[in-house]
Amino acid sequence: MKHESRRFLLLLAIAGIASAQETPKMKKFLTKPLVIEDQGSFFIGGVPKVTNYATVPPANNPNQAIVPNQITIGQMYVQFEIPERRKPKMPPVIMVHGSSHTAACLESTPDGREGWYPYFVRKGISTYLVDQAGRGRSGFDESVIHEAAAMVRNGDAEKGAAAIPAFGRITDNGAWTNWFGHLIPQGSTILTGTLIQHGDPGDPPSDAAIHGNDYHPAYAFAAVDANVVSRAGAIGPAPSGPNADYALEYYKQLVPNAEVTLPGSTCPTCDPTAIAPANTWTPMDLALLVEKLGGAVVATHSQSGIMGHHMVRILKERGHLDLLKGLITIEGSCSLPNSGLKPEDFDNIPYLALKGDYTATSEVCQTTVDAINARRAAGHGTAKAEYIKLDELKNPVFNGTTHMMMLGTNNLEVADVILNWTDANIPPKSKNGKK
């Protein structure tokens, strides 16, 4: 018996060694040690809501009396790091993710490299990340779903179905076709088509007008999960292939846009005047955060671009526009009328619009930048606006920069473009050329 026990333990040990050899060891994400003075997290904003639908009746007693409860909705999760040595005169930077993402996309890359968050801190900048209100760690309002379900249970199926929020999200293959390549042939689905990268044979000729067809995305496609490739525990039929393209570690970052569970709002000066939940709560919370910090630069990405503009409007309405030290819009909406703004609102706020390589130039961003700079040229304010197109910098390192540029193989080079711009423009130079 003792001999058999020892043999069993030996087999377990051998199996453990084999397993450890098969599993890649964790490597360092940071380029070098990071020295910070402080780090932490907190919530900002939010309002109380009293509802009969915070919870659901137990399954064994669906007719249990409904009682009111209070929940908090609309709050925003914030995490931060303060470097030990801060860059003189540089205010904190607040980074905001886009659709179907959380702040995870700014912390590190899916293939295990340093992200923008620690890199900015390394450069002496106090950096704050947020999960949009209604998304990720900020939570969402489950009561609206429970209320809709109650309508169905009570016999009003049509009204209940209409009350269920429509959750949007970026799918795995949707991320591929938006950022990295195509699903061919045209009109096919993941069950009948094949994913190809930009620059591969079969890349549609129409793409050449945007990015050329002679190089691949600047992205680490080797970062895949072997279990996802093998479809261990998968639900539903297997995609047509290649399987590895449906197994990118990046896909695990994608989450539903649960902010649709929050109420919207109206803005009389905006066009349109009806404001979606996403553009209601996160801008409000961002304005609160800028005020709490006593001033900050805000960098938005994609979906959150218009949120940054609505934040500017809210700060303006509160008389705190001077606290916004700069606005960076990365591949997002630059529209001023949508958020009730005018070029003069940016007389003293440096403004940067930034685009990568695999996206078309935005006429709206160019129009906004030109309008802000026209004010400056006419002697109003000193802040500069700029539209930087990475594909026009003629540096091969930016070839293939995707929409998700904070996660690409050239993510730190892109970060340097932003940092160089902030060094040159924040705070704005006075009319005599001095900061």
Explain how this protein is built.
This protein folds into 2 domains: 17-168 and 255-435, 3-Layer(aba) Sandwich (Rossmann fold), CATH 3.40.50; 172-253, no CATH class. The strands form 3 sheets. It has an 8-stranded mixed β-sheet, with helices on both faces. The protein has a two-stranded antiparallel sheet with strand order 5-6. A hairpin with a 7-residue loop joins β7 (265-266) and β8. Mean pLDDT is 90; it is low at 1-21. The termini are far apart. It contains 12 helices and 12 strands. The chain is α/β, with parallel strands linked by helices and 435 residues long. α4 runs antiparallel to α5 (157-163) and α9 crosses α10. The longest helix is centred in the first third of the chain and has 21 residues, at 2-22. The protein has helices at residues 2-22, 104-107, 116-122, 143-153, 157-163, 172-180, 208-211, 226-229, 278-293, 305-317, 363-377, 411-425; strands at residues 36-51, 69-83, 93-96, 127-131, 181-184, 194-197, 265-266, 274-275, 296-301, 324-330, 351-355, 385-389.
Please describe the structure with a list of short key phrases separated by commas or semicolons.
single chain; 435 residues; alpha/beta; Rossmann fold; 2 domains; eight-stranded mixed β-sheet; two-stranded antiparallel ribbon; 12 helices; 12 strands; 29% helix; disordered N terminus
